[in-house]
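Slide 14.
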Amino acid sequence: MDPQGQIAASGLVESLNGWWELAGVDAAVGDLPVNWLELDAKAAAIEISMTTASAVQQMPPPAPAKPAVDWPLDIDSLKAMVAGGIALPGNDFGTCFVSPVGPATSEVMIISDLPDHDELGAETLGSGATGMLLGRMLAAIDIDLADCYWTTLATTIPPTAEIPENALSGLAEFARYQIGLVKPKYAILLGSTACKALLDEELMKARAELRKINHDGSNIAVLTTFHPRTLIARPAMKAQAWKDLQMFAKRAGL
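Slide 15: predicted structure.
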């Protein structure tokens, strides 16, 4: 073979050797065939398993579930449990507990969102400016606030002063439970949060007419109107609230 041909042949051999090295053929092999892809898959699975086990070991143990609290069987017990800080729905957003007020049975039940800050000192719902205005509003249609059962969705005030959206369903369920204990003929929902929780409607739409809450086969006539704290902040809206009250008094035959 001439020198040029030898050089070409040598280059070809080196190229083939390089390709075989990249392919792993230069590695030691046994007499039996080996599935290299299967070995790679097993190695990857072992690595994932070890990583998962390490992550599980680093995770803190789950917090123990809070013990369930039996709901009270009467309103007086409910008021006492709220005042005592028992973990009823809505009684765990803060450390100052404001119980519902009013008789255990009443024709009119009032539901609002949460207490006001000026009620925390006395820990009595209605003891602040909101209660004073609501009393005057109801007196205008011959309803005595003292004769009404008034409760709030939350009996404590959250740090944000607003009820979390994801808590509304559970709070509405407990409010309906109280409706079952009081058995009112009429209900008054104060503010957009109470309206959303109990009727699943926006306040401005629900105000157009009396709504109804069906509870245990009984239809309870419902008035939805502005919360007194809104009227204190925006006195011009009192005229609209007065129209709501007049409609309620006329339709309910008060």
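Speaker note: Residues 18-25, 59-67 have pLDDT under 50 and may be disordered.
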